[in-house]
Amino acid sequence: MAMALKIRGFVESEGRILERDELEAMLFADPRQILDCGGEFFLQWDGCMARDHLGIVPGDCPPGSLIGRGRTLGQIVPPASAMDLGEAIQEAVRLRATEGVVAMSGGVDSALVACLARRPCVAVGLGGSHDLRRAAEVAGLLGLSLERVEIDAKEIEGALARVLPAIPEANPVDASIATTLYFVARFAGENGYRRVLAGQGADELFAGYARYLESETLEEDLERDFQRLAVQLQRDQAVASLHATCFSLPYLDLRVVNAARSIPAREKVKGQVRKAPLREVACRFMPREVACYQKKAMQYGSGVWREIQRLARRRGHASSVQSYLDSLAKDGGAVAED
């Protein structure tokens, strides 16, 4: 009897995406062959489950696990050939650029993915927001197709009400990021894209957060933040699933992770320049003004955070966005009439 193989995402071996029939034949012959495979995937077949090394794709087993008949059969750790950072990023994007749309904000993370992928791009933000303007400028410079999705401020509370029950931690930072991503995922889902290429992971690998500028324990801070990515992935993919799509993350390809983590932390922040190694790579493919531009985080650049603050004040929570979120969650996502 043929296996009923269910596949989310893609599986690759030595830089080649496996076709469905190849994957079925491999898993039927010896399920443990999946232990050496890369990609972003969750698989179910014949009482077995397998999930990619970092758990990019949501699934019912732990990241990097092969489960058969209720017991662990092995850990998925694909061999990653040594590459320099530029080669690793190119390969990671190539594997993911067979379909999908790129989430573009105009910063170096998304701009480099978009430049290499040459896929349609989408930018979201309130009217007049920084990210809509910047993404349009970058897309023009790089010759990319861009859809600008202007968020109606009236939609934000409804989006919040949907994301709060879905995400693991309903604090102001996570809620505002999730709400911004909600509109990216909605565009993708409505336009038939099953995959959204995005730049998550770059800040943790290359020291992108402003707090790293003052850190005296940068190596430890980067490691701690990298380990916390699992919670962020859960948040982002939960939002994507609301619209039947999935975020695909080239910077969390194991080749890129290994190349990035081989670079000493002190080389990732040079003076006041964060993500220095990534910017050096980006300069090979785009104008320096794009590669070296330092932008705000998406929840600020899109205008979503400011609108959430405004909503909190209007709903009687002027001193605490958290109390507003708690109230909205407590009410079961019921949105008050204006």
Description:
It is a single chain. The protein is 43% helix and 15% strand. By secondary structure, it is α/β, with parallel strands linked by helices. The protein has two domains: 6-75, no CATH class; 85-301, HUPs (Rossmann fold, 3-Layer(aba) Sandwich), CATH 3.40.50.620. The protein has a six-stranded antiparallel sheet, with no helix packed on it. It has a five-stranded parallel sheet with strand order 9-8-7-10-11, with helices on both faces. Helix 2 (85-96) runs antiparallel to helix 10 and helix 14 (304-314) crosses helix 15. The longest helix has 19 residues, at 172-190. The radius of gyration is 20 Å and the shape is globular.
Strand content: 15-25%
> How much is the average pLDDT?
94
Number of strands: 11
C-alpha Rg (nearest Å): 20 Å
Helix fraction bin: 40-55%
Terminal CA distance = 59 Å
Basic shape: globular
The CATH topology of the largest domain turns out to be Rossmann fold
CATH class of the largest domain equals Alpha Beta
Q: Which homologous superfamily in CATH is the superfamily of the largest domain?
A: HUPs
Largest sheet: 6 strands, antiparallel
Order of helices and strands: EEHEEEEHEHEHEHHEHHHEHHHHHH
Structural class: alpha/beta
What is the element layout, followed by pairings?
Layout: E1 6-13, E2 16-17, H1 20-29, E3 38-45, E4 48-51, E5 65-68, E6 71-75, H2 85-96, E7 101-103, H3 108-117, E8 121-126, H4 130-142, E9 146-151, H5 156-163, H6 172-190, E10 195-197, H7 202-206, H8 218-227, H9 229-241, E11 246-248, H10 254-261, H11 276-282, H12 288-291, H13 298-301, H14 304-314, H15 321-330
Parallel strand pairs: 7-8, 7-10, 8-9, 10-11
Antiparallel strand pairs: 1-2, 1-3, 3-4, 4-5, 5-6
